[in-house]
Design a protein that fits this description.
The protein is α/β, with parallel strands linked by helices and 178 residues long. The chain is 29% helix and 34% strand. It is built from five helices and nine strands; from the N terminus they run αββααβαββββαββ. The longest helix is centred in the first third of the chain and has 18 residues, at 34-51. The chain is globular and about 40 Å long. The model has no long low-confidence stretch (mean pLDDT 97). The structure holds 1-O-pyrophosphono-5-O-phosphono-alpha-D-ribofuranose and adenine (ADE). Adenine binds at residues 22-25, 101-102, 127, 129. It holds the Pfam family Pribosyltran.
Length: 178
Amino acid sequence: MSDVTYLKSLLGVHPDFPKKGVTFLDIFPILRDPVAFETLITHLIHHILTTNKDRPEVIVGLDARGFLLGPIIAMRLGAAFVPVRKGGKLPGNVEVVKYEKEYGHDEFEMQAGAIQQGQKCIVIDDLIATGGSASAAGELIKKSGGVTLEYVFIVGLPFLNGHKRLDGPSYWIVEAED
Ligand SMILES: O=P(O)(O)OC[C@H]1O[C@H](OP(=O)(O)OP(=O)(O)O)[C@H](O)[C@@H]1O
Ligand SMILES: Nc1ncnc2[nH]cnc12
């Protein structure tokens, strides 16, 4: 079985969560299986290193499920990890961007000075739906002077066209069907 088939087989599928009409795709069964989790991380590292000719200097993980992947990937690549958090949770000076997502709206923040001018960044999250969250993270990176090499996800919902809103290339391992 390929990595992709294996990881897809473990995804949880929850119709009408968190609200009617949304089918929630749950990555936690992958994290509960240590072999699957290792497969996932190795797949993402291999993808990042073979697709980007520049080595990433910063892995930007999105609140909350991007926090489960970003630090592991950053450590394996010898890169910095920088969190993008929901509004009001980070101390000190922050950059702020408001955004719409598949089932509501929110606010993302990044600590001022977390990314140095010109640093090469990869955005990591569990899933891209409308692309609102990832594009807000891209805006925060730009405001901080960073450059986004790629947006990387476990799951993509390409029928929602979220990837078309991003200012750079994107990749997902598993494609969800409409
Ligand atoms: O492409 P979008 O339409 O923006 O949707 C994708 C985002 O939605 C989910 O996070 P959520 O905001 O639900 O936060 P959580 O991780 O704290 O549950 C998911 O983890 C992505 O970050
Ligand atoms: N369909 C979905 N499943 C899981 N997380 C999501 N975030 C936004 N849309 C989602």
